[in-house]
Every structure is written in C-alpha cells, then in structure tokens.
Amino acid sequence: MSSPIADEVARRRTFAIISHPDAGKSTMTEALALHARLINEAGAIHGKAGRKSTVSDWMEMEKARGISVSSTALQFDYTPTGTDQASVINLVDTPGHADFSEDTYRVLTAVDAAVMLIDAAKGLEPQTLKLFQVCRHRGIPVITVINKWDRPGRTPLELLDEISERIGLTPTPLYWPVGIAGDFRGLRDARTGEYVKFTRTAGGAKIAPEEHLDADAALEREGDVWVEAVEETELMAEMGQVHDEESFLAGETSPVIFSSAILNFGVRQLLEALVELAPAPHERAGIDGAEREVSDPFSAVVFKVQAGMDSAHRDRLAFMRIVSGEFERGMVVTHAQTGKPFATKYAMTVVGRERETVDTAFPGDVVGLVNATALAPGDTLYAEKKVQFPPIPSFAPEHFAVVRADSAGKYKQFRKGIEQLGTEGVVQLLRNDIRGDASPVMAAVGPMQFEVVAARMKTEFNVDVQQERLGYTVARRTDAASADELNRQRGVEVFERTDGVLLALFSDKWRLQYIEKELPDLALETLVAAAD
Ligand code: G4P
C-alpha cells in the first residue's frame, strides 16, 4: 500500500459496541475518548450524576429521554504505545434499546468490527445475543470485552464457557484478569506472559497508570492470584484457545479482554487490540456481485437517516459510511436509487449538538449529509463508476398500529410527515384498499418506534396523531395469488408495504400454523427476524 488513499484506509478502524443496556457502553465510550485524549477527564465519583459534561453529550440527551434514538459516530486519532503511527478510529453508536434493533442492524452495516461488551456479573444477556447474531449474519469479527471486573461477578472460565456454549464462538483470551471479579489488580498478557498492573485514579477520572512486570516479579507481587491467572490462561492455551487472526476474521473466534470501564483498566488494551487485530475498511460487493475496492472512485452507503436531534437543528441528516475513494465536500455524486445527481455541500460530522464541517473523508469514515431528504437507509451514493450496494433487509415486524391525524384539517402535513418517517425507516408503512390512505398501518419491531413517530409528527410536522394498536403479532411475506384467499381467513389481513412487498398479518402464530396446515399452497415466507 503506498498511495495516499491506501495509507488512509490502512490506518482506519470502524467499529461499534454491542451490548445489553447497562453493561457499560457509555462508560466505555468515554474511557476510549479519554485514552484518545479527546477529553481530559472521565468517570464520576458519585455515579453518572456527578459526571462532568463531556463529548458524549448526545448520550446524556439519550439518557434523559430514556431511549436511544440518535446514531452517529465519534472519530478520534489513537497512537498505540511504542509507535508513532496514529490510527483513525471511528466508533459508530448503536441504539441501546431492543425496540430499535432494526436501526442497530442498519448501523452494523456501516462497521468492520464489533466489540461485544459483557457485564461480568450478568454474562450474556438477551440484547447482546441478538446483536451478536446480527454480527454473525453479516460476517463482522467480534472482540469480546468482559466489563465491570472491579465488581463481584462470575469466574472468567464460566463466562468464557458461556460464550462458547451459547453462541458457538470460541473465546481466545488476549488479557486475563489477575484477581477475581471484585479484586481487579491487573491483566496478564496471554501472548507475552507479561503482567500489566494498574493503579486506580481518583474516581476513575484519569487514565490508570500501568506497571509492566515479568512473570517472576508478578509472582512475587501477587502470589497465588498470579499463579491462578497463569494456570487459567495456560489451560485455555492447551485447549487451543489462542488468538488466531484468520479464525477471528472468519468470525469463528473472538479475542477476549477483561476490563473496568469505570476505572479505565483494560481500555488501552482494547484500543490496541482494535488497531492491531480489527480489519481496516475493505471492499464491498455491489448487487451485481462486482467488488467495489477501497481505492475505486468514491462510493458510500447510507445507513441512517434522522432528524430533530436537537431543537437548534430541525433538519434531516443522512449518515453515510464511505466504502471507497476519497470524499471531498462539494463533490457532486450520483444517488444510485434514482440516478439523480446529489450535491454534498453540507457534509458534517455530528457529535451531540456539535456539528463540524467535513472537507475530506476516506473509506471507513461516517459523514452526515444535511437536508438529504431524498436519501433512505440502504441507498448508495457514488462518483464516476456506477455501483449499487445491496439493500438493507427489513425486519419482521411484530407490532402494528393504525395511525391517523387527530384533525382532518391536517391531512396534508400528516401524509408528508408519515411518508418521510417511513422513508427514514422509523417504522414500516403498510396499506390496503379497505383501510385507505388516510389511516395507514405502522409496522414495528418494538412498540417504542410508535412513540418516536408520535413525538416526531408533533415536533417536526406539527400534527397530533392518534394510534390504535392492531391485534396482529406475526407477519409473513405473501404474493398476489395468495392474497384473496388469505383475506378470507379469520384473523388475517393482507397489506402492501411501501417497498411493494405484500405482507400477511396474523393474529398469532397458532392462527398462522393452522392456515399453513389447512392451505399449504399459499405463499407464506418468513421475513428476516430480529435475531437472524
Ligand atoms: P450503557 O451505556 O451500556 O447502558 O451503560 P453505562 O455506561 O451507562 O453504565 C451502566 C452503569 O454501570 C452505570 O452505573 C455505570 O457507572 C456502571 N459501570 C459501567 N462500567 C462499569 C465498570 O467497569 N465498573 C463498575 N463498577 N460500574 C460500571 P449508574 O447507572 O451510574 O449506576 P451507579 O453506578 O451510580 O449505581
């Protein structure tokens, strides 16, 4: 690699943290920002309430709302210890709540690696499992971080067993804890055998100083606790659970680090593992099967469209992840879905309320385009050589509600707003002739998506909406030939989704099973489930 673009690509790492709410994603993000010297202080002496305001303002906002609706990316430079080569890290935020798993899925199309953050006391939790399945589905390599080791929790072997048994991923320790959960003294580097001893800082506000000791000095310092860490890591090695880059990239194994995000223990190790092991941005196949190489002319995929992130900016932003080529603000690119030119004059990075103009960006980077109303998640932008990336699959919805304007006089705004929110993928929109266009049906993976619609209709389009939940819980893809017969069945209704797909909704899975048995010739295809 020698061209400027190849150098920029080689030093980039784009990843997301996947975790169950409360595992410590925000705390870890802050710790990473501290290590990258993006902030000078992190942590809190008295929990989050005492936390200093930081770059993660946006997280605070999400916390205040109790839900996570904004997804954006934090970019920082990081120079690993002992080198003078700065890497560029893009940390793409994922929504925390399970109701937004479809958004998370979209976000995960924008990353090259994921960090699976696990609470040492809780082990694998439902949302972690779900998100892990998404990573597996998309072939995203996963680094595992077992967090909160400063608190009493399970044993390392138990936690690692759970990972291999429940998700079939072989954990390969990179850094093993010295001291049981609740007595976190340091980490043993499984590859070099060296001991990294940490010292706490007041309130975990600063980077934890490290001492590096060889095995003899470690034994002298920690005694039995050190011996245990050595025995356990050697046991893992005997079982063949050692890091192997190829099987990690193939999604078969996952390097493991133990950490305390709140004390900043193991955070440097995570950053360096990302730089050393996670893949740099790489080629991506278009729908015609041809690979778009990172050195090809500019191309990007839109993975998130959102609006109303704060009251000062009521506009709409489309976030794209650059796949190939150099992006220069102002360049006119082509929107693959419509063939229309798209001017990129207003290109931004967005962190909370802060917006900064982006003049250039490279593969792996995330750029927000302002007022990009024509763009929808999954869309492709390109320059010169045409490419279109595969669409992002829609999830199987499980919640359905009719939505209508509170007052008939607002119908025009209502249509405009609901169509916009449908395009952004806030909910899927369904219609059929019987119900008509005045009261479309919203389909969602989680009911909180309906709340987002109601809130945004009011704040952005000035329309109060009424929602009425429908008693359907299962959706199957069907075809025109089967639609009439299905509509004649009790507890079934057929709709057309905005993308033209016909969906049959069933009151419950027993109704579906009965119909599948009685009328086996009907087309009833399973949609991508949230856990696929
Ligand atoms: P999330 O974004 O994944 O939802 O988690 P977040 O970082 O908000 O962390 C959830 C809680 O866990 C927070 O406590 C946070 O301080 C704590 N936490 C995160 N990482 C660690 C860690 O490494 N060790 C320990 N001991 N705690 C950690 P909180 O909601 O403020 O409650 P509290 O701690 O004040 O009771």
Number of domains: 3
Q: Specify the CATH homologous superfamily of the largest domain.
A: P-loop containing nucleotide triphosphate hydrolases
* Gap between N and C termini: 36 Å
Low-confidence stretches: 44-71
Structural class: alpha+beta
Strands in their spatial order, largest beta sheet: 2-3-1-4-5-10-6-7-8-9
What do the pLDDT scores average to?
88
CATH architecture grouping of the largest domain: 3-Layer(aba) Sandwich
Rg (C-alpha, Å) = 25 Å
Could you give a short account of the major beta sheet? 10 strands, mixed
Distinct small-molecule ligands in the complex: guanosine-5',3'-tetraphosphate
Instruction: Report the portion of residues in β strands.
Output: 25-35%
CATH topology tier name of the largest domain: Rossmann fold
Domain Tr-type G: 10-282
InterPro entries: EF-G-like_DII, EFG_III/V, G_TR_CS, P-loop_NTPase, PrfC, RF3_C, RF3_dom_3_sf, RF3_GTP-bd
Subcellular location: Cytoplasm
Keywords: Cytoplasm, GTP-binding, Nucleotide-binding, Protein biosynthesis
